[in-house]
Amino acid sequence: MELGVCYYPEHWPEDTWAPDAARMKALGLTWVRIGEFAWSALEPSPGELHFDWLDRAVDTLGSAGLKVVLGTPTATPPKWLVDAYPEILPVDAWGRLRGFGSRRHYCFNAESYRRETERIVTLLAERYGHHQAVQAWQTDNEYGHHGTARCYCQNCQRAFRGWLEERYGTIEALNEAWFTVFWSMCYSSFDEVDLPNLTVTEPHPSHSLDFYRFSSDSVVAYNRLQVKILREHSPGRLITHNTAIFFELYDQYKLAEDLDVLAWDNYPLGMLEESPLPDEVKACYLRSGHPDLVGFNHDLYRGVKGKPFWVMEQQPGQVNWAPSNPLPAPGVVRLWSHQAFAHGAEVVSYFRWRAAPGGQELMHAGLNLHDGRPDRASAEVSGVAEEIPNRDGEYRQAGVALLHDYENLWATTLQPHAQGWNYWGLLVGYYAALRSLGLDLDIVSPQRDLSGYKLAFAPALHLVDESLAGHLTRYVERGGHLVLGPRSGAKTLSNRVHAPIPGPLRGLAGVRIDHVDSLRPGVTGAVTIAESSYLYQTWADLLTPEGAEVLGTYQTDAYAGTAAVTQNTYGRGRCTVVGPWGTEAFHLNLFKRLLEQAGLGWLELPEGVRLNRLRRQGILQNFNSEAVATAHLPLELEDGTIAAHDVVFLKL
Ligand code: GAL
Ligand code: ZN
What we know:
Rossmann fold; TIM Barrel; binds beta-D-galactopyranose; single chain
C-alpha cells in the first residue's frame, strides 16, 4: 500500500520543484502523477516542442526518490489544435457544438484527433518510456466526464452506421432486432440510420441502447490507441486510467481489459452533495461522506478487473464543483485513506499537492494552501504513511457478490417507467443493507465466474439471453444461490421484451411475470413476509409461481395476495426472486434469512459504522461525528467505543 499526490509543475516556478519533491518524500508519498493537462505547455504552437521543462520536472521528482505516473495530455487539446481541426469539437444531444475553454472538448471518433493523439502520445512515450522515474502511465483523464462520451456529430453518425453494419450484417437483421415496424421506422439501408437525438418524442429504445454501446466502444477504441503506443515504447510500465464516481457513459469492464490497473477519483463530499440521498442523510454525513456511496465505488472498481485498484485522486479538503462544498471534519482524510485500502486500493493519491493559483479550480483544496504552507490534511497524510506499513497486504474474495453491468443500467434508464427509477440507487440499497450487516461484497459483472460465492445478488438483471441464463443456471445447479431483483429477465439484448418475463430465466426462477407496478415517489406498497409487514417503493414485479415457493405476498389492494418474493430450489442451489424495490427494513429482514440459508454469518453494525475484513487485518470505521459504542460487537476490539471519524484496526 502506497500514497501519492497529483502535481502540476507547470503551475509553479521551477525553483519550487525540488523543495516540493523533498517535502512529498518527507510526508511519506511515493508516487506523483503529472502532465495530464500539459499539452499547451509542451507544445505551445504546432510542432514547437518544449519538453525540456518536463525533462527537468521528471528528473527532479525521480532524484527525490519519487515514482512518476505520467499522464497523456489528450483531455485538453490546445487552442491551435482546435482551430486547425474544428471537426474534433463534440456535439451534444441538443445538437449544440461544444467549444474550447475548459476541457474534454473532443470527439472520440474524429480521425484528425486520433492522428494528433497518436502523435503526442508517441512523442511522450519515446521520450520517457524508459525513464527510470516514469513507472506508470495514465491515459488521458476521466474519459467522457462532463457528458462527453456520447457525441452527436457527423463523425459519430458515420462511425455509428459502420458499427451497426458490423453488428447486424444486413439491414433486415437490424429491423428485426429493433422491431422497427413500430411507428413506421423500418430502414432500407444502414445509411438511413441517424443518431437517436432530436427526435420529436423519445427515440426508439433499441436504437438508443445500440448508440450507447457504440459510444462506449468508441471510448474503448480510443483508449486502446493510446495503450498500444505506450506498450510499444514503454515496456514494463503500468498503464492505468482514472475513472469518475458512479461513471456510467462507457463500459468500465471493457475499457479495463486494456489496462494493467484501474484507478478512480474519490471525492466523498462532492459525491454526497450531488447524490439523490435525502437532506437528513446528507446533513448527517456532511463532513465525512456516506460510507456506502464511497465503499460501493471502491468495490465496483476493484470488481471491474477483479484485482486491487488505485485511487488516483483522493479528496484532501474542500472541492469546488458540488452545489455546496463543506470542509471535511478533522480526521476524515485519514478515515478515507484507510477505507480505500480496506476495500482493496493499492495506492491512494491525493488531489492535489497545492491549491491552484487560478483557473476553474482555484477554490479546490490541496495538501498545501495556495501559498505553499501545509493545509489541514497534510498532518493526517503523514500519519497514514506511518500506519500503512504495519497493515497486512493480502486480500481475499468476499463471500457475497453483487452483480452489476452497464447495459442493464442503460436499458432500464432509457425506459425508467417509474419516476424514481435509478439503477445505481437500487444497487446501493442492496449494497448498504449487506454492508450494515458487516459483510464484504464483490461487485462483479454477471458474466464472471460466480462459483466462489455462496450468494449472488442480481438487482435489475434486465437484459438476458440464453447464454447468460445458461451461465447463471449452472451456478445455481452447482449449489449457488442467485437472488434476482426487480426488472430482471425483462428484455432481450436488443432491448425487446421477453414474452413472458423473465424469458430464459423462467425455469430457473420458477416464476412468470405478467404485470409490473410503477409507483410515484412518496407512494409505498406493503408486503408480508413471515407475518411481518414491510414497505416497498417505485417498482413491483407481480410474480406468478410456476414451481417456486412463496416467501412474501403483496398486500397492496390492486393485487393483494399476489406473490412478491419467491424461492425456487434448482439443482443443488436456489433462486430467489424479489419482485418489489424494498425499503431498508425489507431488505434487512429478507437478506438475513438468505444469509442464514447460505450459512453466512452477519452482525448488526451501528448506523454509520462499517467493517471490512477483505484483508487479513480487518478494520472498523466510524463515519459519524460522534463516538459510537462497539462493546456489543462480536469483534476483538480493545475499547468499547470508536471515536468520531476514527479507524480501529482489528487484532490479527
Ligand atoms: C476530477 C478531475 C481533476 C479535478 C478534480 C477536482 O474529476 O479528474 O482533474 O478536476 O476532479 O475535484
Ligand atoms: Zn462525434
